């Protein structure tokens, strides 16, 4: 299988993590053995033994041109962040040479961006190769529409030339249909490594109520709204993540005299993330748009009640007053009211945390997700 992804390890987000979690499982014979032994309940899909080659950008110019990561052979083309704009051309050229050696059965594009464009061109050149497009984007339809105004016909081709689409939420499945895709769409979410995030039996209490968010610091994630909400919450806020709005958000916290209660932790390695989540009382991200929101699912697996807005893919897993609390978009008072309600009501907090944890275990375990994706690969 040939994979097109604009970024990959060490530059990893939810989409890149999904690729690694899935390929680590379905590329392993032991995974099929566990299914047969009844350790994993999902069944079906082609035999094990998949070979994966991934073409991506050498974003910082410091990564090896070729290396093995898990079950994937990673090939990096270009050098530096500007090279991502030329990725459809450079990736197509490299993939064509690689295909002549390996004869791929499937081309898998991670997101409808330059990676999807490269895959759609590859499909046009090699129509016998099946083209699977995975949709992970969290930006609003309006944002994407304006960002792609100069290439709208090409952008639509990313969708319409695919043989099948896997969307991580019904929100993104609907987007694919709006762009003209009329074939089969599989709604299969991202998953969670349950064992990695499960809360330990003993957990040291926080010195004060702690609100936590894990997020790229970008406009769509509404971290500015969360910081403003902390004016009305007695507690501290931990912000994990980096992004182009960091300086602006720091200035906002300072202007509201919250610099002593709002901590910018920065980038946290995914392996260290549970330790931070287990210190907190509530997870909050008042998103303006959201493809799914893997960070919410990870917080739920860690035993945290969550507060979120009813946008995008969030509505696939959050039921108000059952698996989380909804708040209003761009409304700091609404966010604060939801946080304060959870902090003041221990029973509500525990019930929501328990329901959320059960939901993630039942529907979002990576082992189950990998088996569902494996069936899609049999298109």
What Rg do the Cα atoms give?
Answer: 21 Å
Estimated share of beta-strand residues = 15-25%
Fold-level CATH name of the largest domain: Rossmann fold
CATH architecture of the largest domain: 3-Layer(aba) Sandwich
CATH class of the largest domain: Alpha Beta
- Shape, per Cα inertia axes: globular
Please, how many domains? 2
CATH homolog superfamily of the largest domain? Glycogen Phosphorylase B
Please describe the structure with a list of short key phrases separated by commas or semicolons.
379 residues, globular, 2 domains, Rossmann fold, 6-stranded parallel sheet, alpha/beta
What does this entry look like structurally?
The chain is an alpha/beta fold and 379 residues long. It has 2 domains: 202 residues, Rossmann fold (3-Layer(aba) Sandwich), CATH 3.40.50; 170 residues, 3-Layer(aba) Sandwich (Rossmann fold). It contains 15 helices and 14 strands. An 8-stranded mixed sheet has the order 3-4-2-1-5-6-7-8, with helices on both faces. A 6-stranded parallel sheet has the order 11-10-9-12-13-14, sandwiched between helices. Strand 3 and strand 4 form a beta hairpin.
